[in-house]
Amino acid sequence: MNINFVSHLMLPTNGGWNRELVDYVCWPPTARAILAIPLPLQPGEDGFFWVATTDGRYSSKTGYQFICNERLANQASSSLGPSMSASLWNKLWRADAVSTCRETAWRACLDILPVRTELHRRGVAPDPSCPWCLDAPETVEHTLLYCPRLRPMWFASPLGLRFDVESSMQDFLAGFLVDVDFVAAGVLFATFYSVWQARKDFLFRSSSSTLEQILVRASRLRPSRVLAQPPTIPRAPLASSWRKPAICIFNLNFDAALTTSHEAGFGLIARDKEGEILAAATSILEPVLSPIMAEALCFRWALGLASELGFRRVCMETDCLGLFNYWRQREGASSHLETVVRDFRFMLSNFDVFDFSFVRKIGNAVADALAKLAFRLGSLVWIEESS
Ligand SMILES: [Zn+2]
User: How close is the Cα of 149 to the center of ligand 1, in Å?
Assistant: First the structure.
């Protein structure tokens, strides 16, 4: 039948699908899937798009993630993260610890702390081994939990932890957080933070903290200090002393820039409620049909990234009034935007709290600058290292 290109399945007149032909040549489920793809009103160049990334580019990493996500979806569990479920992320962000401690735990969980194995992999550090024990590669798990030097400290800590087996950070946290309260989670994260600080002091200031000093520092990092008397059993319910932790809501500003050649640059900046920057990102995409489509695709990209980074409560801000109004009207389907808007309505299930608001250009200046930088930098994500 000489069908060699997708365009052979389209009507030559208006660019819509030739339904009769699609139904004739394709197996019904395939035909349904094809006909469900909305076509752009204006013709564009053909291209290959990988469905699992927002920029359409395939990599073995995203292929792997795609399979994992499919498997997770089949298990009807959360749409988020490799092994951290939504409720565990939730617990992570609500732990009774000051925000820098929660952020250290968050980085550990995403495996983005600058440990030596990672720096070595990137060619920054000559030696991947643990600076403390010099006996094992310094991974996130090793440096925060399993380093032989730290084991007595963990046992002596209010949590009384002993590690019989070594697992990945995500598996450890998934197991630990599942049946402890916010207080115990806070103790763990404050200790993580204190250990990480001690490691930095050791490496960069040549000052060596004792295990006791690490624990004392951790004990000062809990906002409610409800554990002034260390509990004998860490997993004991602490109902009388529990108090509602502050809710973490992250502000995410995004913006898109479009060149005359229809290349779109995206920028995103994520801050916590104190205004501390947690992450920033740029990306480019082409071709994009219109400025508002660029904003919509940028929104989808920002949502995906926020979910990948484990932000469960977000307030997104845009300076694109068209997109904001389109979002608010809660219906559509007539616009070419709907293809994308439908995507992000679906993605909202990744968030516990979601808010979307309009800001003036001046309030979105950083995201705007990042979007313009994207043309030079390409696709990058920066994660702020804890101070
Ligand atoms: Zn070590």
Answer: 6
Question: Strands 313-318 and 250-258, how do they pair?
Answer: parallel
- What single-letter amino acid sits at 92? L
Q: How far is the CA of 227 from the centre of ligand 1 (A)?
A: 28
The values of phi and psi at residue 264, to 5°, are: -110, 135
Please list, in sequence order, all residues whose beta carbon lies within 8 angstroms of the beta carbon of residue 282, skipping any fewer than 6 positions away: 265, 266, 267, 268, 370, 371, 373, 374, 377, 378, 379, 380
- Residues with C-beta atoms within 5 A of ion ligand 1: 130, 132-133, 147
Domains parsed from the chain with CATH numbers: 6-35 (no CATH), 86-241 (no CATH), 250-383 (3.30.420.10)
Tell me, what's the pLDDT at 43? 58
Distance between Cα 115 and ligand 1 center (Å): 11
Nearest CA to 291 among 249, 322, 252, 267? 322
pLDDT single digits (tens) 56-66:
577 888 888 87
Alpha carbon of 210 to ligand 1 centroid (Å): 15
Under DSSP, the state recorded for 146 is I
pLDDT in tens, 202-241: 988 888 889 999 999 998 887 655 444 444 434 433 333 3
Q: How far is the CA of 64 from the centre of ligand 1 (A)?
A: 30
Cα–ligand 1 centroid distance for 197 (angstroms): 15
Q: What is the widest separation between alpha-carbon atoms in the chain? A: 80
